[in-house]
Amino acid sequence: MAEGFYPTLWSSTKITLRVVSRAIRQLFHETTGAIFALFALYGGISAWRQWHTRPAAWLLGFTIVYAVTMVCFAFTSFRRARRVR
Fold first, then answer.
1. Torsions phi, psi for 45 (to 5 deg)
2. Of the candidates 3, 34, 23, which has an alpha carbon nearest to the alpha carbon of residue 85?
3. Cα 46 from chain centre
4. Is it the case that residue 74 has pLDDT exceeding 70?
């Protein structure tokens, strides 16, 4: 009876660890994407405020580039979360 127990236990442990690992990686990418999305939102709000106060053009441009970069990072991170295997 013990002869079939340990190989079965080892096999089920490997499968369980694979599933848990996949879930953790997916959660990591989704959390990272959410944080980047918050950074993008903050950058967009900052650009909107600067637009109304008429700052230097380079400062407004920098803020817009920052917000767009964070949106790209968030999109990429959410896309990787879907593609985790």
1. -65, -40
2. 23
3. 22
4. yes
Q: Which of helix, strand or coil describes residue 48? A: helix
Cα–chain-centroid distance for residue 81? 7
Neighbouring C-beta atoms of residue 70, cutoff 10 Å: 20
Terminal C-alpha separation, the chain: 35
Length of the chain: 85
Q: How far apart are CA 71 and CA 35, in angstroms?
A: 10
Contact 59, 18 (CB under 8 A): no
Return d(Cα 54, Cα 76) in angstroms, integer: 32
> Is the CB of residue 76 less than 8 Å from the CB of residue 46?
no
**pTM for this prediction:** 0.79
